[in-house]
Structures are given as structure tokens and as C-alpha cells.
Known about the structure:
By secondary structure, the chain is mainly α. It has helices spanning 35-50, 53-66, 71-83, 87-100, 105-117, 121-134, 139-151, 155-168, 173-185, 189-202, 207-219, 223-236, 241-253, 257-270, 275-285, 292-308, 313-325, 329-341, 351-360, and strands at residues 3-7, 20-24. The chain has 19 helices and two strands.
Amino acid sequence: MNATRLVHRRRPHLLLAIAALWLVAACAPRTKLNPHAILRVREGMTLIQRGDLDRAEARLTLALEYNPNYAEAYNGLGLVYYHRGQRWRAMKTFRRALLLDGELAEAHNNLGVVLLERGDYRDAAACFQAALAIDPGYANARFNLALGLLQTGKLIAAEKELLKTLASAPQMASAHAELGCLYVHKSRRAAADRALRQALALSPKLAAVHRCRGRLQRQAGDLVGAEASLRRARQLDPSDAEALHELAIVLLLSGKEKAAEQQLKTLIARRPRQPEVHFALAFLLQADPLDATRQVRAERALRRALKLRSDYPAAQLLLGDLLARQGREKAASQAYRRFLKRVPMALVDQRQRVASWLQARNKPPQGERPALSAIRTAPHTPAGR
């Protein structure tokens, strides 16, 4: 079965990730057709893989002149439109293919890809499940179903589907990468390392593998290795914002504040609505309490993060600390009280010092700043973008 591999560019809050969606061409016609039509479709699919979309379209439309109801030809045309960026037209064409042949698993999968990119997770999942009902061993459709589950936070179900995908297609590097990144998120380091090593052996130039290995190395305290992996991820895919985010954190932990700040500014320009990035920048800026300008910028970044996500305990805590150091007790109290309404496990050790300060109301809290790990409070993001 021929496959056309596409990178799915996800929204920042999904982000997660960042992985490949698979659009595929039908293997063979399902009814007796004109041999010339069959040949033209096969030629068209080959041309799509080569990126020659105009000639592919010519072959596929010619096939439809031989057989106007040739579902596989419409599926191929949908691929042409997809690669041209004509998502709406591609979706209509995949639907046309399914009206002609509801058993065309490839068209179900391809329609699901377009719907998933549009954020229509329920209908996308229904498409992938329809494809799997026709062919349970259809690894591409199962992988795409797993991506949809990851993007909606259904991690247990996603893990099961990824394992099934690898049972059908053990050489699919993207599936190993997604599974490894999921295990990194779940702090299953040994399993994550095995999965990512397997993905790396199959596809050394898969940026997501290097990004997730970098995060795994950071968690293990290997900041030098983490920086190298993340820079490799950025080299392979300069548009990978997740790798940029991780690299900024590693640089900050390594004491390379200027480099970290530059990375965060670049990321904010690319993803201005990602609260975790504004929080990370604020964490960096507020570290020097004697620099009034940086303190103002830190407060601005924290308020931006909280505007984007009001329920953000780590940002409330850091804002409270910043305001308390400036003697702005009333504003600090408000931030601290919001923090105490929902204290995440990663910051539970901060609860007592904040409560004590609120009782005393006469001095800034003396204690550690919020753990840097609190920067990463977003749900798991798929390995791809």
C-alpha cells in the first residue's frame, strides 16, 4: 500500500506534540473497471508521492473520464487537493469517494486526517474507527486514531492504540516515537528510553525523537545531553516550537540565562498564546530583584500567562512572590489566595510558607521559588506538532 506522509501542524495548546499523520492511496480498485482507468490511478498515486501534483491530477481526472464513479480516483484527487493546501476541497472529495464506495478504508482515513487538523476530534475518530472496522490491521488509521486520543488527553486509550499499531507495523518509527514521548510524560523512563531508541534506529532524522530524548535526559539530570538532543531536533525541524520550549528550559537550568531568554522570546513571537512560555520568561526575568525593568517585564509576562490560563497555580505563586518582594502586600495576598485554592502536587511544599506569610502579612516569604518543573504544566503533547 502506497502512503503519502504529511506533517500535521497542531495548535500550540495541543501541541503537542508534533508526529506525522498518514494519508494513503487505495491499493486496488474494488469493482471491475476499465484497465486504462486503473493504470491512470496508479500513475497518479506515484506522481503524488513524487510531489508532481499537476500531472497527478491530470492522470486521475482522465481515469474518471473512463469511469466517472471510480472511488479510488476521487480518493487520489483528494490527496492532490490536500497537498495543495485546499483542505475544504479535499474533504469534499474524500466524502465523494465514500459515497461511491463506503468500504474504501483509505478514504475514511484520509477524511479523518482533515477533520483532525480542523479540531473535529469526534468525527475524525469516527472516520479512523470506520477504516479499522473494514481493516483492523490498517496501521496508518490506528496510528491516526492514537494521535487524536493524545490530543484530547485520553492517554491510556492512546497507549493501547499505539501498541496495537506497532503490533501491525513494528517498523513504524513515528509510532515508536509517540509511544516514547508518552512514556516520558508518564515518567516511565526505562520504557521511554527503549521506545525512543527504537524510533531513532528506524528514523535517525525524526525530530520528535530527539526532542523527547532531550526531555528524558533533562528529567534524568543530563543537561549537556539534553541540550545536544534538543539542538539536533531544532536542526532537523526549525519550526518545532516544543523543542524550542524544552531547549529554553534546559538552558535556564544550565545557567545560560541570556541564551534561554533569547529562545523564549523567539518562541513567544511564534506562539504568543502559550501561557507556559510566558511563565518561563517571567521565571527568568524575576530572578534579579535589583533590576526594576526586568521585574516589570516579569510581572507583565505573568499577567499575560494568567490571562491566557486563569487556573495556573504556578503563575499565581510566582506573581505573589514578585509582588511581596516589592511590598505590594494587597496584590500579593490576592495572588497567594488564588494559588492556595488549588495547589498542584509539584508545588505542595510551598503551601505552608504561603499560608504563613498570609498570616503574618509583614514580610516576603522566605523560601524557594516555584520549582522550574512547574513550567511544564500542560497536558501531554503528541510528539509531532
